[in-house]
Amino acid sequence: MLWACLTSAEYASESHPKVFPLVSCVSSPSDENTVALGCLAQDFVPNSVSFSWKFKNNSTVSSEKFWTFPEVLRDGLWSASSQVVLPSSSIFQEPDDYLVCEVQHPKGGKTVKTVRVTAAKVEVLPPVVSVFVPPRNSLSGNGNSKSSLICQATDFSPKQISLSWFRDGRRMVTGVSEGQVETVQSSPVTFRAYSVLTITESDWLSQSVYTCQVEHNKETFQKNASSSCDATQTSPIGVFTIPASFADIFLTKSAKLSCLVTNLASYDGLNISWSRQNGKALETHTYFERHLNDTFSARGEASVCSEDWESGEEFTCTVAHLDLPFPEKHTISKPKGRPDSAPALHPGLSRGFQGLRTAESSPGPALPSLTTATPSPTTDVTMKPPSVYVLPPTREQLSLRESASVTCLVKGFAPADVFVQWLQKGEPVTKSKYVTSSPAPEPQDPSVYFVHSILTVTEEDWSKGETYTCVVGHEALPHMVTERTVDKSTEGEVSAEEEGFENLNTMASTFIVLFLLSLFYSTTVTLFKVGRLALGRA
């Protein structure tokens, strides 16, 4: 049993015990509708004391209701304590109610010491009552199918509460089920309770008025619901888990988990928390954003080691809100079929990524676009490494002697998680100088993706021979990263594949020229022979 602070002391002399009242910090372990109080006697000699308890009206508490614990010797003085457990309904009905603890000690004859013990004051908080009705898109059209109405009472104290259902003013007994009262928070202590009413779809669509009645602390609260009022119901709250991105894992060696909650009428009472597979809570930071349609969205973020994410461990986001009948849970893990761990950064890129690590690893409070939130994939992923091509600026752009564009085409990769970074002379280029498209399925093969990134450079830098490198990171690559470099001197160079095409074109052109020459020669010879025959006949 946990005990609260010592509140007062009354004692006759140093030779007699000092007596203190004790108030329980928690309810009795066996019955939360009971009150536990205590009495402590200290610094007495000899070690012989007895305890008894009385009510305010001087009636005696039965010895079956309290216990006396053995004496304890410390620094030559003895201490002992007694505990009484009584139903909360039998005592402390009024603010000035109390119990009396009597301590008898034989020093110098029979000595009786008394102290008043009062219960800790409990803050009374009224419940917040909400009724959740079945959405219209959840109705099957079969009148005999079952639907559920949920009544929830939250943030109330003390714990005693009663929930009941009425239809058009008549109390309903069948189809009602209640859950256990749960603790919401500990300081101050508040609770949550709910009741579920199961009815048929035809009963719900009959436009009857269903009432949830909540009785708490001698007060009554009511909330009505009817299918006729359902047309104005707002969009339901959406919860989306966003898995860790490859870029975060590769650059920071940690995996950032995000949980996005949308369509919030308010963020009062919202709680977003992440937990591990073993139930251990993760430190979660929550960010809010207000939208033009007067709704709110929130994102809860937590970080874990990249090794934990790569191992396939499951992580759960739990969202609680006043507009949700029950906390909503979504679990994500890394999809199967991916590498178990990320190799070290390619040696040739270590210097170039030093600045990038700092720039990318400081998360801002801004929320992502709602369109970026997608549920975590659960199926196996087929991995294909990307092909990377870098295209120099066109001659038409360079002739303007203004800005020019260097393009990096990344194609044929899967899964879609990829990052692109530009380097100039081996140093990272600021993101404001380039733009990268979102991954999109290739038209010929939707199972693989492509992106393109366009870097804007000055004509002067290009003409001076500055080198530009497109760095591509993808987990299907041998070292998880590859690069392609281009500058003025490589502007006319072609890859082996392009060279093959040029050789093919040269062969085709040569064949056509030889064919035409052969045809011309044959025609000339034929005409010459025909001319000689004509002259001979003449």
Nearest-integer average pLDDT: 76
N- and C-termini, Cα separation: 139 Å
- Number of domains in the coordinates? 5
Given the C-alpha coordinates, what overall shape results? elongated
Question: What CATH first level of the largest domain would be assigned?
Answer: Mainly Beta
What is the CA-based Rg, rounded? 40 Å
Count of discrete alpha- or pi-helical segments spanning 4 or more residues: 7
Q: pLDDT under 50 segments (min length 5)?
A: 1-13, 27-31, 338-378, 492-506
CATH architecture of the largest domain: Sandwich
General description of the model:
By secondary structure, this protein is mainly β. The chain has 5 domains: 18-117, Immunoglobulins (Immunoglobulin-like, Sandwich), CATH 2.60.40; 128-232, Immunoglobulin-like (Sandwich), CATH 2.60.40.10; 238-342, Immunoglobulins (Immunoglobulin-like, Sandwich); 381-490, Sandwich (Immunoglobulin-like), CATH 2.60.40; 496-531. It contains 7 helices and 33 strands. The chain has helices at residues 201-205, 246-252, 306-310, 354-360, 395-399, 459-464, 496-537, and strands spanning 18-23, 34-44, 50-54, 66-74, 77-87, 99-105, 111-117, 128-132, 146-156, 162-167, 170-172, 176-178, 182-186, 189-200, 210-216, 219-225, 238-242, 254-264, 271-275, 281-282, 285-290, 296-305, 315-320, 328-332, 387-391, 403-413, 419-424, 427-428, 434-436, 440-441, 449-458, 468-473, 481-486. Strands 8, 9, 12, 13 and 14 form a 5-stranded antiparallel beta sheet that branches. Strands 25, 26, 29, 30 and 31 form a 5-stranded antiparallel beta sheet that branches. It is elongated and about 140 Å long. It starts with 17 loop residues before the first strand and ends with a helix. Mean pLDDT is 76; it is low at 1-13, 27-31, 338-378 and 492-506. This is Ig mu chain C region. Residues 17-118, 127-228, 236-333, 386-487 form the Ig-like domain. The chain crosses the membrane at residues 507-528. It holds the Pfam family C1-set. Residues 367-379 have a biased composition (Low complexity).
